[in-house]
Amino acid sequence: MYKLVLCLRYLRRRAIAYFAVLGVALCVAMLLIVASVMTGFVNKIERAARGLFGDIVLEPYGQAGIPRYDDLIERIVEDVDRVEAVSPRIYSYGVLRIPGQADYRMLVQIAGIRLPEAVTVTAFENGLFVQAGLAEPTFDPPAKLLAERVSTHIQAVRAVADRERDGRSDAKLPEATDDLLNRLANAEGYLWRGLANIELAEARAEALEYLLAAFNEVELAGRDFTVLKDNIVELDELLVQAADSPRRYGVLGRVRRAVGFAAAMTDITRLKDVIKELEAETIEPWPHRVILGLGIDALSFRTQKGETVRIVGPGSKITLYVFPIGKQLSLTDVSPNVQRLTVVDDCTTDVASIDGKTVYLPFGELQRLNDMAEQTAIDGRVAPARCSQIQIKVRADVTSEAELREVCEEINAVWRQFKRDYSESYPNDFPNVLTTSAEARTWRERQIDLISMIETQRTLMIVMFGIMSLVSVVLVFVLFYMIVVQKTRDIGVLKAIGASSPGVAGIFLAYGAVIGLVGSIIGSIGGYFFVRNINGIRNWLDDAFGFRPWTRERFMFAEIPNEVDPWTVFVIIVGAVIAGVLGAIVPAIRAARMQPVEALRYE
Hints:
Elements: H1 2-13, H2 16-53, E1 56-60, E2 66-67, H3 69-79, E3 83-98, E4 101-113, H4 143-165, H5 175-199, H6 201-220, H7 228-241, H8 246-265, H9 269-281, E5 289-293, E6 300-302, E7 308-310, E8 317-323, E9 337-347, H10 352-355, E10 358-362, H11 363-369, E11 375-376, E12 382-383, E13 386-387, E14 389-394, H12 401-425, E15 438-442, H13 443-446, H14 448-468, H15 471-486, H16 488-496, H17 501-532, H18 534-545, H19 566-593, H20 596-601
Parallel strand pairs: 4-10, 5-9
Antiparallel strand pairs: 1-14, 1-15, 2-13, 3-4, 3-8, 3-14, 5-10, 6-7, 8-9, 11-12
Helix pairs in contact: 1-17, 2-14, 2-15, 2-17, 2-19, 3-12, 4-5, 6-8, 6-9, 7-8, 8-9, 15-19, 17-19
């Protein structure tokens, strides 16, 4: 009992002990912050990888692809009990361009996915903007939903601009703020054009269809422009019907003028010009749609406050030049397939390396553009449609990596049997269509290079800060040695009244353990609140001092990871207590070895 009483008394009355507690607390907080942030990075990458690729991916070696993938998928679902859902995917590469911006070219990865089927395997729907919260997203969302989302985003962009201006005149704006306001104004202009495309889509599509029909009539009639008289009468009737719809009336009036001019001047050029104009303005029909990765350079940006500003948003046009690597030729041997597309949504995985270079097309659209669609030769032989990989989701009860590898082996067995049966099952296919091998791998195995790199960095950082934290051991040692020297007479009194050497040593060891425990609790609490509010602290540093320890526009995730693992906290607390005890060992031994008479004579 006397050990506890003395231990607590020393802790309360010895101010020097507070420095030891503070040192332990700082070391614990530092370790907790580093471990939590780095672990958060690993966890985010793992979640993003699993959400993007599914639990298991069956992928061939090379670019030849997997033929008869739907039949293979059916076999996998039937033969592998633990498989829950399967979906094919195509990957290719291309160049993204924006109409009206001749200098803009961006090399991108193109993913062809089946929606809404893909969301049964991956977490693709979680990162969507327009279709956020929809259980079954598509490449053909309702025009009303598109318009609502774009209108809301325009208001958000205006709010950012108003905040940055904050009543200041243009003459008083800092250069950085002036540049941001120009970028916001540019973004708003593009968004308005996209919104106009969406709102006028139906009317333009109707007008374009009518113009094409009129053009074809003139061509079939051998450039006899008198056939346009009926078209003019019909257009006048449509204009009367559209009187209560200004947008439709305006577009139809434009068509009426073009047809009337062509009929009067017997010149088809005007029809061609208006057709080109409407084609450039009309939302592309299915399947010419695209979902952009949120983060592609110059298509969106992030402010210093963390707001995402879209420049090319829903309703905007892009052009893709797709390199058809499905031909199994080098990029220098092929000409790109060109397709104009309308943006209908954007998606984020929260990993910049993926979001900044990926666009998503309907599966069949990319299959066509990548020359992976089915083709039949004159002699009746078939080159079947192919996919780049097959993504697989397993049942919820399959949780460990070992279990996932077991499922991989079952899928590989199905693949090997499928390959053996191929020539007999599909006798009309070209004999060399299935020349490559494929292998099923877990999501972690596919991302092992990236994950292991960050895990190594995390380990290195923890080791470095752990070594630096040894200062707490040294600090406790120095302080306790001083306390033992100062308490020499007290130690002599304790021994004189019967205290044993182990008992005296126990006082100081318990003292060290209490310092380690109290310091670790204080440090854990401080570290926890720092990590949980790390993004707010970053914002405050930026607002108050202009100090940007983490550049928002370019870091890997939208927010700094701020998860705290309870097990990490427990390990650090135990380590801090052990460090306190280790620092007290030598002084405790010295105190235990003191002789009562010599201690009492100590001056």
